[in-house]
Amino acid sequence: MTDEKAFAGNSASVGPSDLEAEQMVLGSILVDHRALQQAEDMLLPIYFANEANLLIASACLGLSKRDMIANPVTVKEELTTQGKLVAAGGAEYLIRLAALGRSRGLRGIIFKLQDLYLRRVLIAEAQRMIERVSTPEDGEKGFEALSATVARLQELRHKVAKFMGGF
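User: That's the sequence. What structure does it adopt?
Assistant: Structure tokens below.
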């Protein structure tokens, strides 16, 4: 998977999300270390729209990169060390997530999170384009704004394809 930072600047919190899907993915990871091993190549924390879930996913992936198992205890310790346990919902939230765990169909749920993330990115980019067109630069004509918008969309498409493994 490509470097997460290459595209993270285009994430947005506005737009479609699925809290239940996010929780199922994290619950699966917390109760079955094989779930993360099977999905690690396609999972990035930025796919999680919910801030607490993003922090937990980051902790799980960080543990995995250090060859440690992500479970409620190790993730709690990791988040505590980072000073992020409260922001991640606390130990009680980790236990609730673990209760939701099931690893069947996990890759399909992650694909859904990827798609929702892409839609949030597109919404954020559309909002930036609207702002640009609404307040044109000195002397910029409508066609120039359209050309710049098309160029930006093509750049975004290329970046998304590279980031998410091709479209």
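The helical segments are 5-8, 19-31, 33-39, 51-65, 72-82, 90-99, 106-134, 142-163.
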